[in-house]
């Protein structure tokens, strides 16, 4: 390629960039219409007590540990292997 060709290609690239920026400002950028936005209330850490009909304090606690039988194994998912002396 000759230097004239590189200059012509460079000039075409610069003109294409300028043209695309100008066209994109007309196509993609819309004027602001001054729309209003809903204001979100402040979130606090204070909660009211739940309704007693749904949250009974004397109900069963399903998060308690339940032990069935006498099992001394503390790690039941460990692979059995030889014991160390």
List keywords for this structure.
85 residues, elongated
Provide an overview of this structure:
The structure is a single chain. With 85 residues, this protein is mostly helical. It has a domain at 1-27. The chain is 31% helix and 0% strand. The chain contains one helix and no strands. The chain has one helix spanning 3-28. The longest helix is centred in the first third of the chain and has 26 residues, at 3-28.
Short description:
By secondary structure, the chain is an all-alpha fold. It has 1 helix and no strands. It has a domain at 1-27.
Ends: how far apart?
A: 81 Å
Structural category is: mainly alpha
User: Unreliable stretches, pLDDT < 50, 5 or more residues?
Assistant: none
Relative strand content: under 5%
Morphology call? elongated
Output the radius of gyration. Answer: 36 Å
- pLDDT averaged residue by residue: 80
* Fraction of residues in helix: 25-40%
Element string (H = helix, E = strand): H
């Amino acid at each position: 390629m000759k230097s004239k060709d590189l200059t012509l290609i460079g000039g075409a690239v610069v003109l294409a960039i300028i043209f695309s920026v100008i066209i994109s400002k007309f196509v993609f950028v819309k004027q602001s219409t001054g729309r209003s936005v809903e204001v979100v209330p402040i979130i606090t850490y204070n909660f009211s007590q739940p309704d007693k009909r749904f949250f009974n304090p004397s109900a069963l606690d399903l998060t308690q540990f339940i032990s069935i039988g006498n099992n001394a194994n503390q790690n039941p998912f460990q692979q059995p292997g030889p014991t160390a002396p």
